[in-house]
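I'll show one example:
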Amino acid sequence: MTTDSTRILTRAGKLHTIIAVEYEGDTTAALLDLATIGDIAVNYLDRTWFASYLNEDHGVQLTDEGRAEIAWRLDGYDEHVCGYTEPNVQKDFAEQICAQAGLLGEDQAASGE
């Protein structure tokens, strides 16, 4: 008997294989193709975006460890965006999870420096 969690893991495994083989590991390209197929708008914050944000706005270099601390928090982005009414959604969300990940001090998160 197949459970919902088994089905989800199987689908995720299939997607992982497709991204690895058909997209040569380019998850962003796969996401954008899915958005095109599904006629949906997407917004994404990838590693390059976070590295640039942390460096340019806070003078912090993104490490593999820092990225790992950010990655598991990214699933909150959709809720954040849906409830947000200010103009700079990406930087506000990024600042929030980078501070939670311990990559920014309280003074950096509060001042944007």
Q: What stands out?
A: DSSP finds seven helices and no strands in the chain. The mean pLDDT is 86.
